[in-house]
Specification:
Blueprint (H helix, E strand, L loop, with lengths): L1 E6 L8 E4 L3 E7 L5 E8 L3 H5 L5 E2 L14 E4 L10 E10 L2 E9 L5 E10 L4 E10 L5 E6 L2 E5 L4 E7 L7 E6 L3 E6 L10 E9 L10 E6 L5 E7 L5 E7 L6 E3 L5 E2 L3 E6 L2 H17 L10 E3 L1 H4 L5 H14 L3 E4 L30 H11 L3 E6 L3 E2 L4 H5 L19 E2 L5 H17 L3 E6 L20 H19 L5 E3 L17 E2 L7 H12 L8 E5 L7 H9 L2 E5 L7 H23 L1 E6 L6 E7 L5 E8 L21 E7 L15 E3 H6 L14 E8 L1
Parallel strand pairs: 23-24, 24-25, 25-28, 28-29, 29-30, 31-32
Antiparallel strand pairs: 1-7, 2-3, 3-4, 4-5, 6-11, 7-8, 8-9, 9-10, 10-21, 10-22, 11-20, 12-19, 13-14, 13-16, 15-18, 16-17, 17-22, 18-19, 26-27, 33-34, 34-35, 35-38, 36-37, 36-38
Helix pairs in contact: 7-8, 9-10, 10-11
Bound molecules: (2R,3S,4R,5S)-2-(hydroxymethyl)piperidine-3,4,5-triol (DGJ).
Length: about 700
Amino acid sequence: MSFFFVHSVAQSVSPVVIETNNIAIVLTVAGNQRLHQSYIGKKLPFSDYMAMKGGREVYLTAGMENQFEPAVRMIHTDGNPSLELRYLSHKQTDSGNLKKTEVLLKDPVYPVEVRLYYVSYFKEDVIKCWTEIVHREKKNVLLTQYASSMIHFNSDEYWLTQFHGDWAREVNIVEEKLTNGIKSIESKLGTRTNFYQTQMFFLSMNKPSTETEGEVLAGTLAWTGNFKFTFEVDQRNGLRVLSGINPYASEYNLQPGEKFTTPEFIFTYSANGKGLASRNIHRWARNYAVLDGNKPRLTLLNNWEATHTSFTETKLVELFDEAKKLGVDLFLLDDGWFGNKYPRNDDKNGLGDWQEDKLKLPSGIGYLVKEAEKKEIKFGIWLEPEMVNPKSELYEQHPDWILKLPNREENYGRNQLIIDLVNPEVQDFVFNIVNDMLTKYPGIAFIKWDCNRSMTNAYSPYLKEKQTHLFLDYTKGLYKVMERIRKKHPHLPIMLCAGGGGRTDYGAMKYFTEFWPSDNTDGLERIFIQWGYSYFFPANTISAHVTSMGKQQSLKFRTDVAMMGKMGYDIRVNNFTKQELEFSNEAVKTYKAISDVIWFGDLYRLISPYEESRAVLMYVNENKSKAILFNYFTTTRRKDIFSRVLLQGLDHQKNYRLKEINLFPGTKSTQPDNEKVFSGEYLMKVGLNLAPGRANALSSTVFEITAD
Ligand code: DGJ
């Protein structure tokens, strides 16, 4: 570990260089001691950085000469609404693949310090940055804006890709040119935060980027709460990108000496399109950001779509048998197992009362865990610990634990309210629900953590007159609870769910092993939804279940779609035909055999379903000895003519054998290249004809590609 410290103010400071294997940011100190961003982009010779100066101020303040959206705005104790930040010092520490840079900025008049942090991940080409704000004034300072980062660009054009959606139609991709003024992508939803907009974007320079071409920045914010990205193109075509917590309704009273730490903004920069940017983020996520990101995941059978809340103990044990027949690792019991005074037979009752429903489960959870063990499968359980139904004992006993406005009617989302996670007593309650359950039933091997509403009419009884801290403190409260859970149960797999994909961000993913992308499990829809998430999340985090949604699609098609992510099932196996059962049982085995390539390999999106009526993608393992290719025809019509598909990521020199896998019993491959051997060069330059004869809508092919 090397360490160096540069002091300045009077002496001239050499540029601060933040570098990874392929990208760099260069910060320079101007004559007036303001800190400028002089460069961001491809790595250059060091001598170029040393010659750099000028640029734009890195962390623009409000109230002085800046006329644009500021990164930080505060009102001092004496009412002065301005801030000036001058460079004071910086230090850099190096520990192998990670390098941390800390730059200290200070106001020359008011006792305010701002620290800018950058951690660069050399091999992954990812940089994360955040900010810390502290003051030593006599009384509180009011912070009204507090970005995690500000990045400047100077290109001819800027193309922004965003991912927006709603329930059951998450992460639709839109790319558009930024024009003068401000475009923001933000959330004010509190919980279930990225229901409409997500914390991920691409910014392409000069022209839209493709999967393989163009300069592009991929950015995301590690915050499970209100977020905001602001893209401001000024009168000289300069672009400022601000990232951070959404300051909406969230002015923060910062006490003297208290540290205000923003969440991390994570980004990578690719000179070769979005595909490389995704792979950088995936690698970084698996290595550093997702809980047990490099470890295997469990295949499972869930009962939500199969039974909803109507089941009995006997029926569940039958379902264990179905899980066993399928060959999956785990049975996941979903919503509906709890509540006695108000049994959870629908979504109006019982939320908050986390005791087994004695009518449905007279022998309790312990019995279910044991029965599952007997059948040699693991057992997992659904919880929605942050929520309460008005019809619950929790609501009756703790009205002061609930987020709701005084003097106004309660406002429900899915007939429920949110409990006040800002309150340490409520944090204890939530921690204890999970911890007690895991302590009492150590056999529980998996949790699905749900969150089915966003914040409306929210008011924290605990915060009293400090309501503007609610959005921030709620998320911090959630993290405190998760920290405690993870301290005691460091590796228990937990799926994060928010009524579909309402919570998918890297602030949460360090506590979770996977997430639920959507309640829409129709195979066709899932191609688009999983495609969208694949830009920022590795396949082992994207749960994909085979269900009976999309009945017009074959079981094979739905299974092939689930296989491109973290496969599971939510279906009545006993309703399968003999062949369907045989197929599914084989599919689980096949998936187990190839999942290391899918989960830990490099993803190449070859043909987008947004551009053609098909989707083709492949995963390649690290040493390029094995790849899995998925080919889906979507709304294909007779008129469609499909060109050959050029594969990517293989070794030009190696020879690869192609084998169609996951075929339905009694069918044979119709692929002309099945069982043939081609060089990597051929596969990537000449490519494959994946649509011989007529391509049928809603059909699919999976190829295992193995180096000979
Ligand atoms: C919403 C989730 O997205 C579903 O998968 C299911 O768990 C229900 N909640 C249960 O209420």
